[in-house]
Amino acid sequence: MSRDRWTLAAISLLSFFLVGTGIVLPSWIAFQLGGSKLVGLVLLSSSLAGLLFAPLAGHIVDRTDRRLTGIRGQTVRALGFLLVGSSQHLPPDVGATVLMFGSAVGAVGFTLHNGAFSGRLQSIIPVNERVSFFMRLSVARQIGIAVGTGIAGVSIDWLGSSASAFALAAIALACAGLEWRVRGGTDRTVSAKSGVAAGIGEAARYLAANPASLIASITVGVSFAVIKTTNLLLPGFVVDTLRGDSALFGTLEMVSAIVGTVAVATASFRAIAKRIERRPLVLLAFAGLSLVVFSFSRRSLAALVLYSISGAAWSLARSAANGRMLEVVDPHLIGRVQAITTVLTGLFGIVIFLMPQWLTLGTEATLYWICGVAVVGASLLLAAWSGYRGT
């Protein structure tokens, strides 16, 4: 790979290392300050901040120098970690507020950086190589998240929560330095006179007029919905259906992550990527079907095998969907299209997270197959629409 490609890979690895540590560290501090209720509020503040800021982030990405936007995004993430680390040194009520605000700031920084990163990738990587290259980046991202979650726990034990947060702020600033080393993707594409609403409206009209791009955007949203489903239902499924404990839960997640990483790494070879890059809907339907099959497992060994297959399926579906979106969406609109996709994904997540409240009589196994059937159905509808529009 060229220097720019290696630098993109390094940025992606470190950026998602920060995502992994950002999952563990704020939650641990929140539990120390206010118990499980504060943990929930911190996670909610982070999710809502990313969702609400996405339209503005997309507009900023497309109207400014994307290299500077990426640097600003990483700098904002560093500020978020500094706020998270400072929260433990404040009175409990003030600390809880600062912690929630810091988590929200970190989510805003990630949303801003992620949009700029996608735009720069489109500028640097030729269209016929984007799917395979994004799959290789997906391997780096999964490794980054896995290492980040593990390192966060060790770092808290060795350095303490605050020192760990300050160290992560330094890593975010180092990522900002790496952003400067990437030479491509510094263009701006939106007139300075256009506002946020006009810019997002333009992207919405573009999607309405380009079925391939709209289908790619929806596919990304549904593929992330599969992952949200597993995050929500797996703990209860392990305890209530498999009669297992935290050891089984951890084993299922670990093996699934490993198999998913291997699957994406294998699919990143160009010869294999070319076979699947045009078939994200097939992979998405298979991911939904894997949830249905997994819902019927009642023994730990069978669940381990089936959940590993599911891990491979949704990892491939997510990577192929993201790669397909970068392949077909106009680079001049990628920031705003990705913003719409982020909002769509967030809305899917709200529906999924509220599902146990609506379907109070259903077990986790029942909810698994309901979600799986819904994903398969969505895949078939999108495939039918794609065939009808000739995309």
UniProtKB/TrEMBL annotation:
Compartments it resides in: Cell membrane
Membrane-protein topology: Multi-pass membrane protein
PANTHER family linked: INTEGRAL MEMBRANE EFFLUX PROTEIN-RELATED, MAJOR FACILITATOR SUPERFAMILY ASSOCIATED DOMAIN-CONTAINING PROTEIN
Membrane-spanning segments: 6-31, 38-58, 94-112, 133-156, 162-182, 203-227, 247-269, 281-297, 303-321, 333-355, 367-388
Protein keywords: Cell membrane, Membrane, Transmembrane, Transmembrane helix
Name of one Pfam family that matches: MFS_1
Organism: Pandoraea vervacti
Designated name of the protein: Major facilitator superfamily (MFS) profile domain-containing protein
Subcellular location, principal: membrane
Keyword Nucleotide-binding found: no
